[in-house]
Each structure stands twice: as structure tokens, then as C-alpha cells.
Specification:
215 residues, mainly beta, 1 helix, 2% helix, globular, disordered N terminus
């Protein structure tokens, strides 16, 4: 078993999963100004471990890719219970989270176990994690995460302003993962919905036709 300690250099983030709402949203993914794919995001209230939880599916589909991420998250704080990823319908990876360790399983690789201390969050879920934070002008937050390709790491999050998206006021939130690419998210101030993002030549915005995606 691989054992790593997750050292918390910053205060535990005040992530509140009850800020989220159940529902389905469709987004268009663009490279520059050109639509290349769509994202269907579904959030469903369920029970897991005998308590309220969120079942979240983020399914991205374009002409050249089909990626489906599935999360089971504790409703209280969005800490993960389970994650699985499918590529073109085939299982790619699974992660099971316990109190002090996580187990990553892939069809073609040995099972990997990683020990951690404290709380961690899912490194594949950006927008909804941001939406569950106590966002305010100038806020800075560090979120410890696990991502199956990168291991244990950290989201660094800054609220840098406000913007109007349609009729809704949104927080402008810049997020990076371990100092890598910076992504700018728009999070509804009232709805706490993910309203779009941009970064590295790509963007996502509300709209598009998700009728071809089966969850």
C-alpha cells in the first residue's frame, strides 16, 4: 500500500454542499469561438452511507471524445464517497474513498491505495466544488484534492470580481490545480449554478444540444 500524508498548510475549507441544487444543465464547449462538444451535468439528491448525498454526472461528448465522470458526494460538505470515469462507454477508472484512505482501480493496472489525513475533495470536480464555497469579493481558498492521474494535490481559488451572465449576477473565480493552468469560472451568486468557464483556449457556456447524451 502506498502511504502518503496529506499535510494541511491552510485551514480546512468551509465547503457546504447544501448550497447546491438538484437539476440538469447543458453547456456548449468551445475552442476559441467554435463549438466542439457539449456537456450534460446532472445533480440528483440520493442517500449514501445512510445520509443525504449528491449523485453527480458530468458527461462531455464531441465528435472525437466521450467522457463521463460520475461522483457520489456527501451532501453536507461534498467530500467524495466514490468516483468513476468512462471513456466512450468503457470503464476507465474507479476511486473508492474511506475515512483515511482511497483505493483507485483500473481495468489494466494494479490496484493503488493511498492513505491521507483530514478531508479531501474530488480533483475532477471543479465548478460544483467552487459553487459550494463561501464565495465573496477577494476570497482566497485552498482545497486539498485527489485526482486519479495526478495524485494528491490542491486547488488554489481566488474570487477576482463579479460579472453579469444573462440576468444573473455571478462571481468570477480563478482556480488552478497545483499552480498549473488557470481556469476562470462564473458561479451564480444566487443560484450557485456553474454558469461557464474559460481557460487555455477553451471555454464552456450555457446552451447547446445535449439530447444525444444518455446518462
Amino acid at each position: 500500500m502506498l502511504t502518503l500524508a496529506l499535510l494541511l498548510a491552510a485551514p480546512d475549507p468551509a465547503i457546504d454542499g447544501t448550497r447546491l441544487s438538484a437539476g440538469t444543465m447543458c453547456y456548449s464547449i468551445l475552442r476559441g469561438d467554435q463549438p466542439i462538444a457539449v456537456t450534460l451535468q446532472t445533480v440528483t439528491a440520493v442517500q449514501a452511507e445512510g445520509k443525504p448525498a449528491w449523485d453527480v454526472v458530468v458527461h462531455q461528448k464531441g465528435a472525437r471524445f466521450d467522457i463521463r465522470d460520475h461522483f457520489i458526494l456527501r451532501a453536507a460538505d461534498l467530500t467524495p464517497i466514490a468516483f468513476d470515469n468512462r471513456l466512450a462507454g468503457a470503464e476507465h477508472v474507479r476511486v473508492a474513498y474511506a475515512k483515511d484512505k482511497l483505493t483507485t482501480t483500473r481495468p489494466d493496472k494494479p490496484v493503488e491505495e493511498i492513505a491521507f489525513s483530514g478531508r479531501i475533495w474530488e480533483g475532477n470536480l471543479w465548478g460544483l466544488t467552487l459553487a459550494a464555497l463561501p464565495l465573496a469579493e477577494g476570497a482566497h481558498v485552498e482545497v486539498p484534492v485527489y485526482q486519479y492521474d495526478k495524485g494528491l494535490g490542491r486547488f488554489t481559488i481566488h474570487v477576482v470580481g463579479s460579472e453579469k451572465v444573462g440576468d444573473e449576477d455571478a462571481w468570477v473565480v480563478e482556480a488552478t490545480s497545483d499552480g498549473q493552468r488557470k481556469v476562470r469560472y462564473l458561479i451564480g451568486k444566487t443560484s450557485r449554478a456553474e454558469l461557464g468557464y474559460s481557460g487555455s483556449g477553451f471555454s464552456q457556456r450555457l446552451g447547446g444540444d445535449c439530447s444525444g447524451i444518455a446518462q
